[in-house]
């Protein structure tokens, strides 16, 4: 109707009217009638404000706030806040951090024993399992090319070498690779290729090498042209700067001469008795008439004028230079060809000898002084050397052996070299790739240190972050059980190790279990997290009958899949998120059953994909939405002591507990002093 069309435009009267009892007459150009909300929220407003009210009505159906993050639900507006707590798209990433120290060389006994038995009970040894997880993540993140660039294969070098060593290498008579730089570039001489050479390359099936050659020829030609142009620009700038400097000097001389002529009459009138900056001998007279404080203050306020009128030297004259004396010109070509001036008499700050009699000598020390060949030298261990260099370079910002300046002339230069059996490394190789074919070992301390972001962590320790994602209503349980109750207590409270672990004993036991049920906490490598595993008797699922291997797999599957879908959904509703994650991978039926609980128990994540453009830019876009269950296990509100024997029972049979019985008398440490005192007392009596 015409009235509804006009209602979309707010009238002049309605724009400022907020009265629920408005009695203004209905005029299509000025005002409209007053109505109530058709959602029955109780609001009363003019009809033209109906669209505006829909943006605020608590009973309006709207999509949820996280619709862009994957939440598919629509609901009444007044329920948005309540749903935010259980929204599957409201995902929290755990940011708990901790530090781990690399194992010290003097404390390798226990870790060698652990490395030998890594395949035994890694699920129950929680501290070892978590240390191995952190170690694997770190080894995957450390790139060898960032730590040892000199021992990494350069793909550019390989491509050029492949072109040079091709069957048509005779045609590259004019190609000369003189020197490779750090960026993989090379300086080339004679890069022109004639038509005859191109034909010879084509006849010898060197098409790929020809393309390689032409590409590098074009690159180096551009670089050469750029260098030539840069030299020309520098020459032009140098000539222009010389001209400008000459003009500036000429102007300064003219200004100074004119200034002196202007004040010459004033000097004659004042005579040689005043204290003006342009009068001759003003500093000598000032030094006799005033004290040192006033003399310095005069220099501060009038120093510029004293220099301009020639009363004060701008620089210390050469004959008054007490440090160098007479300077001799020295041409500095390189840092190593620089010679110390003979007139230099400075003191070295780190020398204690104040009489300048301390002697220094230039000496080079390297492995050649050992008298051994390179083949006889021991090989460096990749893991220890890489971890040490990574800590020094990435955390402390410098190399293990870098040049150190002692004063203005002396520099201590050190070079650290390594000899790895697996070198050279591939360009994209990580530390995990280098040791992939070797037996796995433990190189980090099993105990962790929790350090917050407010503390300075620039120490020789590596930092780790949990990084697991959970629903907002699951995060509290995860942080309390996984980090506070378990991980923070693995150093002797939740998990107890043998006191002789430093000698190599790997025995450990769990001292707690969830109250009210028999269960253990284990580490699951599939999800890289701690999980809850209840103790289920073996005869429980068979109705009291023992398990028989003759029973077919079909009978096992039919025992649960034959139940109605409603019952399966009801049973799955009692499972925690981790169990639902594992159950969804059993069969298609169980996957469909778990899918019905995704909106209620699962979470939705965005999968991002990087897109690179032709001009070199890049952007990230959401490719799809992924629904899944988290790795959260059932919440544990209270813990109870497990029924495990005391550690003293283990010490009775521990192979590392060796008793040493001594039956011969041993003198006490202070026994001799006591005897001497008794002897003196007897002698006095």
UniProtKB/TrEMBL annotation:
Enumerate the UniProt keywords alphabetically.
Metal-binding, Ubl conjugation pathway, Zinc, Zinc-finger
- Report the superkingdom from the record: Eukaryota
State whether keyword Signal applies: no
InterPro entries according to UniProt: F-box-like_dom_sf, F-box_dom, Fbxo30/Fbxo40, Znf_TRAF, Znf_TRAF_N
Alphabetical list of Pfam families matching this protein: F-box_4, zf-TRAF_2
Stretches assigned to the F-box domain: 557-611
User: Which PANTHER family would you find in this protein's record?
Assistant: F-BOX ONLY PROTEIN 40, PROTEIN CBG16327
Q: What is this protein called in UniProt?
A: F-box domain-containing protein
Q: Which organism is it from?
A: Ameca splendens
